[in-house]
Amino acid sequence: MPLKIVTIVGARPQFIKAAAVSREILKHPEKIEEVMIHTGQHYDPNMSQVFFDELEIPSPKYNLEISGVGHGAMTGRMLEGIENILLSEKPDWVLIYGDTNSTLAGALAASKLHIPVAHVEAGLRSFNMRMPEEINRILSDRVSTLLLCPTQLAVDNLAQEGITHGVHNVGDVMYDVALYYRERACRQSTILQALNLADDSFVLATCHRAENTDDPARLGAILLALDSLSSQRSVVLPLHPRTRKLIGDYGLSRHLGRLTVTEPLPFLDMVALEQAATAILTDSGGVQKEAFFYGVPCVTMRDETEWVETVDLGWNQLVGACSDSILRAVNKVIQFPPAAVDSTPYGRGNAAGEIITRLF
Questions:
Q1: What is the pLDDT of residues 32-67, one digit of tens each?
Q2: Which of 123, 134, 164, 317 is placed for a possible disulfide with 329 were both Cys, Cβ 3.0 to 4.6 Å?
Q3: Active site includes 208?
Q4: Topology classification of domain 3-169
């Protein structure tokens, strides 16, 4: 009888990571059966279904369609829905990714049913307990059986918390994804032509973290910086639906006039833009790493990052949400690009295979 794995996803970064592992699982149909649960955390078609289509991820067997509510209600409803499915499916493992409410709900549901949990991206820490993601990471790690770390620093973080059993540095599945899709994005995406952009002629920006979007002063400062930057070169801003709503609520829409604002973009279009950009401004953990993988300087509009390796290697600047700091950092990395890196701290691009090996 094949090993049964229930994979739980709910947000864009998880779809992308799951693509690498699901592709590896499909190489062993006689040994592994995967059942996927989509919690519905990202419900917009541009942030959900298009990723399953482009990344060739097997369609989820279950979609809980839980979104648009607060953290407590969302996590509670997911916990209930996942528990019912686990009781029915009786898997050997539950596989969770990252740091979302879907991650925590899956971890709690499985652990209470005494089903082993494997956590991909275990051990990451921003050391900012005001971030919901930090709470989700810590709690998920505490109840996981396998802690599948993307870097040695993540292993060290867990050791400092007294967690050493079941800990493995498998590398980063996002590096697997970057290597697999980078050429495909260049061939298949037409986003540069659609937006009338040339390589190395624009800055790509994203902003969705609650620490920025829920604070009118921080969001206003970020938009002011992007608006100022747009007087020098094109700024492309794929806008998360929630961020767009809050910009309107705060009366900040005036800052969008000169920007190239788009809806959330399909994965291959984002990869094409990331590779072609002069620099990337973001508050996304995943985009920070994608910038590093593609050799594009990054300016991170947060006060800390869980991906400190990108900072240590000079490819990522932490600037918070101060307009002047953002502009200085962007102009600096454009004028003085960082030095090339011979090796990566994120593994060799075979993390998905390492993960599957650990499940047997």
A1: 999 999 999 866 555 556 767 788 777 899 999 998
A2: 317
A3: yes
A4: Rossmann fold (3.40.50)
